[in-house]
Amino acid sequence: MAAEAMTFLNIGRPSWDARVASHNSALLAQQRVRRRSMRTPECAFIKHIDNTRLVKASDPVREREMRVFSVVATILLGLVLVYGLQHFYAIESGYNVESSKQQLEQLREENRQLKLSEAQLTQPGRIDSLAREMGFTEPQPEQIVHAASNPENGAPVMAQATPQATPVH
After folding, report:
1. For residues 58 and 62, what is the distance between their CA atoms, to the nearest angstrom?
2. How far apart are CA 73 and CA 80, in angstroms?
3. How far are the Cα atoms of 13, 29, 83, 103, 131 from residue 70, in angstroms, in the given order?
4. Which helix (H) or strand (E) holds 164?
5. What's the CA gap between 107 and 34, in Å, rounded?
6. 10 Å Cβ neighbour count for 113?
7. Which DSSP symbol is given to 54?
8. Ramachandran class of 154: left when φ > 0, alpha when ψ lies in -120 to 50, beta otherwise
9. 169: helix, strand or coil
10. What is the predicted pLDDT for the residue at 169?
11. In the list 30, 111, 136, 161, which could disulfide-bond 131, CB 3.0-4.6 Å?
12. pTM, two decimal places
């Protein structure tokens, strides 16, 4: 009877195996779709390890190698720094030399300009024309005193201006 009751209730419905197979195929299709869009989740399990009781044994060979390496690295770094400083000082000295050369050339040009202006200002013709414009006249023969004509014990001679006696008419 139980079998008849089962078949009686299952009339018009698919069988149990058919329903399970269709449900499994639907789940499989969903998994395929999900696998394309999502990655498989990864899990990490933490394992606690207690290393507090461990003691590191010193290795004298390794310590010596590390000391030698440190000393060699320090020396090489020092040499690189000294070379770099010398290089930068040489570059700076080159810039200073070039600056000094430019300044020297500028001073030479200024000196040349000053000598030209001095030569132009001390031209006898120019001085004569300026003196005439100011009202000066040529000195009279009695106004000229030669220093060599009246030597007094080799002492320096001072120029003196003596007023001329004007004749009365």
Report:
1. 8
2. 11
3. 85, 64, 20, 49, 87
4. none
5. 87
6. 10
7. -
8. left
9. coil
10. 56
11. 136
12. 0.40
Residue with tokens 């001072």: 158
Q: Which residues contact 126 (CB under 8 A, 6 or more apart)?
A: 120
User: What are the structure tokens assigned to 23, written together?
Assistant: 């449900």
95 SS3 class: helix
What's the pLDDT tens digit per position in 64-113?
999 999 999 999 999 999 999 999 999 999 999 999 999 999 999 999 99
pLDDT in tens, 113-166: 999 999 998 898 888 888 889 988 888 887 777 766 555 566 666 666 666 666
Determine the Cα–Cα distance for residues 130 and 95; give it in Å rounded to an integer. 49
What does the block give as tokens for 54? 């461990």
* Nearest alpha-carbon partner for 139 in 113, 107, 162: 162
Structure tokens at 25: 């195929």
Q: Are 160 and 145 in contact (CB under 8 A)?
A: yes
Q: How far apart are alpha carbons 157 and 149 in whole angstroms?
A: 10
If you average pLDDT over residues 28-37, what whole number do you get? 73
DSSP states along 82-120:
HHHHHHHHHHHHHHHHHHHHHHHHHHHHHHHHHHHHHHH
